[in-house]
Amino acid sequence: MARYVLKRILYMALVLLIVTGITFFLLHLIPGDPITSMVQELPEETRAANLRSYGFDQPVWKQYLLYMKQLFAGDLGSSLRYPGRKVADILTSYGPVSALVGGLALLVGVGLGLFCGVLAALERDRWPDRIVMLLSLLGTTIPTFVIGSLLQYALSVTWPIFPTTGYSGAKYLVLPVACMMVGPLASYARYMRSSMLDVVNQDYILASEAKGLGTARTVMRHMLKNALIPCVPMLCVSVAGIFSGSFIVESIFALPGLGRYFITAINDRDYYVVLGLTVAFTGIYVLSMLLSDILLAVLDPRLRKGSSFS
Predict the structure, then answer these.
(1) In Å, how far from its chain's centre is CA 74?
(2) pLDDT tens for residues 103-119?
């Protein structure tokens, strides 16, 4: 097991290097430079001095090596748009907002989605199953910005129950959380239903029913645990998407989160902020995948005995 975890950590480091390199060179393939994009009319001498100060006058390969040296030293870089503001400070300032809103949405959405999926599987081809599948289809097809706009119109304009935008208390979180939870709820309901239906037809389920175990005990002791195993990788990917995939919701509800800041940095061509946040998002993703593999080994004893851990 220790050897397997070490191997996965090495894979994580390789993925981080590849993603950082691809992002770095793609940013530099964009015509122009960030200095000119920030100030359209700039004297040539001033522009050249700024390029030299940030090292943009050097070859791209040399800039890459300098950035990687800085990255290995633990420095994610500083903002070009706002001199003196480090990427690490941006993560600590805006990350908690994204984590709170996305975490609550994921917690509620996954919990309700798993419950609805189990209910739909146990009531297959009956009205609860049809309702769950219909709502899941709507939840996965309606865009997030449409759901957010509908929530704002219904609960902020028509019935002024919750504030439309801002971040000043618990009531400001209700609409963003409700908007973000729709996707996980719909996805996990469909996925859990399919997984439960696969487990229902297994021999050990038929054997437990033949022994006279009740439906509740069969579901809790045998069906639920095994049906959750395929959902673990999906859950870990969802955790990683909390920070990088919420920029639409953060823009609609004017939340000071990382997703919104990331999109702003791309539009501003703030190279080091984009690179630093990309490294952070990728690190969260690969760490989530590592935890996913460990959780799968804990839930499924067959994996611990398999050759993949040798």
Answers:
(1) 23
(2) 899 899 999 998 998 88
